């Protein structure tokens, strides 16, 4: 044990923040010692072992300052040589070697190359299999250093040995672990159709559990010795003793940050908080790297040696979990989830032994630190698992010959819910409790509840309610995070909708609560009801008679002073504030934002109350509270806009009345929102306030007082000059929203001012600003098209031609930018070319810019860009074709445009782009627009070829667009027939002789198929479809055929056959009679 204590002291000591003076020649000491080590040969004598010991000690004690001049390959070579010198039967030397591996890799920030990594990993895995158990902690520490940033190269054998070490010394388990774990194929990541699942590795590698040890959780047994360890953990204040920012930051986190925000570290339960809020990480180095008699996790009543052994075994388990966490953080998700069943439980079958998993540690490990470590590893596995879990399908069909993979995943999800809720009830350590709730939040965020049976969320919901009033602030914050995850996952879910309507008192009766009790409807308002609320009570839409307890809870947390009986853990965390701690208030605001986004019908009843909450938040001094208030305002504004969209399914009497929305925004604009917009010290707040201002309902904006309308417009135009890129991007986007408002879009001065502001932002150095400006330019040009279609021509006449020219030039330049900018730049170009009036086109200065703009569109169609870019370019060319003033058919660019579209419709890998190009080809309304006979023939043949290849794709995701593509091609072919001239008939006849049966079958499908909607707009009705064929037939019959040409008769016969077959199948005798009489 003395050797163990020496190892622990070397590994667990504090990091050397201030190294001593380096030698004159950087790295000379390392090279000297390395040369001595490389000169040695394997020697089993006592003197040889002593020399190796001394060399290792000297290498560990050597000063390695930054820029020490030691090459990574030299470090790897030295470690490989050291492994060759140390046989696995020398436990003390193996322990010292592992200390050396950890020390050199961490101190010198070395990531081992793949060739040496294979050798060192094999050595370490063999060591943990063959050496005494007291060396396992050092070996696991060396493994963690080796796999750092190398997780993707470490699988199978490593994961097997880590899994075995995770259960080292765990009472009641008899582990028989295979030496290798094999992954399960994952079709959702491979892009292949699901196949019959092979036997999971877990079925052959599950260790057996001692049958005497029942799986039923016994809370009293689990809690044994927790108080001592919890006290020890709450008193530790240590930083990971690793050098370099990469590894040093691996162990940092902050519980005072809002837990639901992305990028939060899962490695620390709490750090940086004041007083008792501060909780040490279960992966803090002192929790498992040091081993000394003074660090026992248990009382000495059990006997000194037994206590030390149990404490040491717990630290080995923690070390294995830390190493596993290091591995999974750098391993690819599709690789990691192949080993899902090896570490995550599923529902045990009747008569089969229960598998051991991370949940086994969570439920049965006597050490709270180890339980917290296991939960953090499980959280890391669950994070980002949405795609993997999306295949889950809950079914009660037991008649299948095998269990589908989707059912296995669903079973695993249900078992995770069951085990975590068991752990929640049994746990008493606040730190571990926080980790359980965070793990539940990760599980809820990634589970496909729309594919699972009901009740899973109900159980979580009902069990988490009491913890909202827990004495520990971290538990309360994580409980709100979990509730936020429930109301944001796959929203809106009917199950959650019912939960939100539960009585307020359900599950919230905790007398030791620090959260205020609920009162009558104006419980949280200290001042008497103002005019807004008095009028709101009349205009509020009908809602649930039962108030939403979660909304009331969150509002009370945000605005009510905390009670005097709050726990000591809150003291100091809010900086002496009379309100709840900031993390609680911020999390409550986030929950309100989630509710506004996913369950607006429930939230709308509290619209005016939430408006006053927002005003209070925006008026506070803390920027974080202001920011969350602005985010809530944006979500409420977006919810109101969704209600009034043309395709909204909300009944008019269930919508928030426009008059109430006007009151709401008047309260915002008369309150602290303008101050937030002008707060240049906090640009993030300004940007968020701009986003909120852009979420005004257009119908409400037109009813605002004129001075409030002018205030909004003036502030946005002014903020567009901001030097901060966040503010400028948000302002550009807001202007792009406002320019679509019906009450503003015909205001020539406003549209011109907005255009100038957007053109200025298009020149910004920030890609994000340019992307937002390009989107707004696209919206502005949409407004030009809408104005052009109105009977009043005054807007077109008053709009500046010079500004139009500048817009064209800027859009052409933007079309050469990155894809984010390009996609909207080409949209704007198409609209601008459509908007051009004859008076513009006649001017010489426009001729060159028009040619340049069309060439920009053509090149964008043909380049290998993102699908959205090419789709928008095809759409834009279709808009160009709509302008009758342009010389389509005679201009030199005509053939280039058609060639680009025909190339895309026959060969583009993306079917949505093909659909859009076919739609563009069917836009020209006259035969002369299609150019020469050869040009027409090329377009016709390309469309027939595209129809023939409409099912040729290697990407199965494109198959769902096949029918839409054929529909659009059939429409284009019929349109071409309806404008064909006598010279075109021979070409059409030749194609039909070769491919007539194929074309006829697809046109019949087009006539008979349903009216599925695609991205080209509303599909034609059945009557409109057969009318297209009739129109084509009538036109062909009216064409004066050339002498001796039989093409006309052949084409008419082709179309008549189509109509005959179609009407025969539909039983329309009247139509048949009409056809025969002709």
UniProtKB/TrEMBL annotation:
Coiled coil: none annotated. InterPro entries: ARM-like, ARM-type_fold, DUF4042, HEAT6. Residues 1-27, 186-304 are annotated as: Disordered. The keyword Mitochondrion does not apply. Residues 197-208, 281-296 have a biased composition (Polar residues). The keyword Membrane does not apply. The lineage of its organism: Eukaryota, Metazoa, Chordata, Craniata, Vertebrata. Keywords: Phosphoprotein, Repeat. Residues 260-274 have a biased composition (Low complexity). Residues 315-496 form the DUF4042 domain. This is HEAT repeat-containing protein 6. PANTHER family: HEAT REPEAT-CONTAINING PROTEIN 6, MALARIA ANTIGEN-RELATED. Residues 209-221 have a biased composition (Basic residues). It holds the Pfam family DUF4042. It comes from the Eukaryota.
């Amino acid at each position: 044990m003395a050797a163990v204590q020496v190892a622990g002291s070397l590994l667990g000591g504090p990091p050397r923040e201030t190294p001593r003076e380096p030698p004159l020649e950087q790295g000379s000491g390392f090279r000297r010692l390395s040369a001595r080590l490389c000169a040695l040969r394997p020697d089993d004598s006592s003197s040889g072992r002593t020399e190796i010991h001394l060399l290792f000690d000297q290498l560990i004690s050597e000063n390695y300052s930054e820029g020490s001049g030691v090459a990574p390959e030299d470090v790897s070579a030295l470690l490989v040589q050291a492994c060759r010198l140390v046989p696995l039967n020398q436990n003390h030397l193996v322990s010292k070697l592992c200390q050396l591996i950890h020390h050199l890799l961490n101190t010198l920030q070395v990531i081992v190359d793949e060739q040496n990594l294979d050798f060192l990993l094999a050595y370490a895995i063999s060591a943990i299999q063959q050496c005494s158990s007291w060396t396992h902690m050092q070996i696991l520490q060396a493994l963690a250093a080796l796999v750092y940033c190398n997780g993707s190269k470490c699988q199978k054998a490593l994961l097997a040995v880590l899994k075995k070490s995770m259960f080292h010394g765990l009472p009641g388990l008899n582990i028989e672990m295979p030496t290798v774990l094999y992954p399960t194929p994952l079709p959702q990541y491979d892009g292949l159709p699901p196949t019959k699942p092979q036997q999971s590795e877990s079925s052959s590698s599950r260790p057996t559990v001692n049958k005497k040890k029942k799986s039923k959780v016994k809370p009293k047994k689990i809690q044994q010795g927790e108080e001592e360890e919890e006290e020890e953990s709450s008193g530790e204040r240590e930083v990971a003793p690793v050098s370099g920012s990469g590894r040093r930051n691996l162990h940092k986190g902050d519980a005072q940050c809002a837990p639901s925000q992305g990028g939060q570290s899962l490695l620390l339960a709490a750090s940086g908080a004041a007083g008792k809020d501060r909780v040490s990480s279960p992966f803090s180095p002192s929790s498992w790297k040091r081993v000394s008699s003074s660090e026992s996790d248990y009382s000495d009543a059990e006997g000194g040696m037994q206590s030390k052994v149990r404490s040491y075994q717990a630290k080995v388990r923690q070390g294995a979990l830390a190493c596993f966490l290091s591995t999974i953080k750098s391993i690819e998700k599709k690789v990691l989830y192949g080993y899902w069943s090896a570490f995550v439980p599923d529902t045990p079958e009747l008569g089969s032994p229960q598998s051991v998993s991370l949940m086994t540690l969570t439920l049965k490990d006597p050490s709270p630190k180890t339980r917290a470590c296991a939960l953090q590893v499980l959280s890391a596995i669950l994070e980002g698992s949405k795609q993997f879990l999306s295949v889950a399908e809950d079914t009660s069909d037991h008649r299948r010959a095998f269990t589908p993979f989707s059912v296995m995943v669903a079973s695993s999800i249900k078992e995770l819910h069951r085990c975590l809720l068991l752990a929640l009830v049994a746990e008493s350590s606040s730190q571990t409790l926080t980790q359980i709730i965070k793990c539940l939040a990760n599980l809820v965020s990634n589970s496909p509840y729309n594919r699972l049976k009901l009740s899973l969320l109900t159980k979580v919901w009902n069990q988490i309610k009491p913890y909202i009033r827990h004495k520990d602030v971290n538990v309360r914050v994580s409980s709100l995070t979990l509730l936020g995850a429930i109301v944001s996952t796959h929203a809106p879910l009917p199950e959650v909708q019912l939960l939100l309507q539960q009585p307020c008192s359900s599950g919230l009766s905790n007398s030791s609560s620090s959260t205020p009790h609920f009162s009558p409807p104006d419980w949280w308002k200290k001042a008497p009801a103002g005019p807004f609320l008095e009028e709101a009570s009349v205009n509020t839409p009908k809602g649930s008679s039962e108030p939403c307890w979660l909304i009331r809870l969150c509002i009370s947390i945000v605005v009510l002073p905390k009670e005097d009986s709050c726990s000591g853990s809150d003291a100091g965390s809010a900086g002496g504030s009379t309100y709840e701690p900031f993390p609680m208030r911020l999390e409550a605001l986030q929950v309100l934002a989630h509710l506004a986004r996913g369950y607006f019908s429930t939230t709308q009843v509290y619209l005016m109350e939430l408006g006053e909450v927002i005003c209070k938040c925006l008026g506070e001094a803390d920027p974080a509270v202001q920011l969350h208030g602005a985010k809530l305002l944006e979500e409420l504004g977006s919810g109101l806009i969704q209600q009034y969209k043309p395709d909204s399914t909300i009944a008019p009497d269930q919508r928030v009345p426009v008059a109430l929305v006007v009151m709401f925004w008047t309260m915002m604009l008369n309150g602290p929102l303008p101050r937030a917009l002008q707060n240049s010290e906090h640009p993030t707040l300004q940007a968020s306030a701009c986003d909120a201002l852009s979420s005004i309902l257009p119908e409400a904006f037109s009813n605002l007082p004129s001075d409030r309308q002018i205030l909004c417009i003036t502030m946005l135009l002014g903020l567009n000059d901001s030097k901060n890129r966040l503010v400028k991007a948000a302002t550009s986007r807001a202007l792009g929203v406002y320019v679509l408002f019906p009450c503003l879009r015909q205001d020539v001065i406003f549209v011109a001012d907005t255009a100038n502001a957007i053109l200025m932002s298009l020149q910004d150095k920030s890609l994000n600003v340019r992307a937002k400006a390009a989107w707004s330019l696209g919206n502005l040009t949409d407004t030009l098209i809408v104005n052009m279609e109105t009977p009043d021509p005054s807007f077109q006449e008053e709009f500046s031609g010079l500004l139009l020219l500048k817009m064209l030039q800027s859009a052409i330049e933007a079309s050469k930018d990155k894809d984010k900018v390009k996609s909207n730049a080409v949209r704007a170009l198409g609209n601008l070319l459509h908007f051009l009036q004859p008076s513009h086109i006649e001017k010489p200065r426009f001729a060159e810019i028009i040619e340049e703009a069309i060439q920009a569109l053509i090149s964008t169609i043909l380049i290998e860009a993102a699908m959205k870019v090419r789709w928008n370019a095809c759409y834009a060319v279709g808009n160009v074709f709509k302008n009758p003033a342009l010389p389509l058919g005679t201009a030199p660019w005509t053939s280039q445009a058609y060639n680009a579209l025909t190339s895309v419709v026959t060969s583009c890998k993306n079917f949505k782009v093909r659909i859009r190009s076919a739609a563009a080809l069917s836009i020209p309304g006259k035969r002369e627009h299609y150019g020469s006979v050869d040009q027409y023939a090329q377009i016709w043949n390309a469309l027939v070829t595209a129809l023939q290849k409409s099912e040729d794709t290697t990407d199965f995701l494109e198959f769902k667009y096949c029918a839409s593509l054929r529909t659009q091609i059939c429409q284009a072919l019929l349109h071409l027939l309806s404008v064909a001239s006598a010279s075109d008939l021979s070409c059409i006849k030749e194609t039909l002789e070769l491919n007539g049966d194929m074309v006829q079958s697809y046109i019949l499908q087009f006539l008979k198929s349903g009216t599925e909607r695609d991205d080209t707009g509303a599909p034609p009705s059945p009557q409109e479809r057969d009318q297209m064929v009739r129109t084509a037939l009538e036109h062909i019959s009216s064409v004066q055929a050339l002498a001796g040409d039989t093409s006309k008769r052949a084409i008419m016969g082709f179309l008549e056959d189509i109509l005959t077959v179609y009407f025969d199948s539909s039983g329309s005798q009247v139509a048949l009679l009409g056809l025969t009489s002709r």
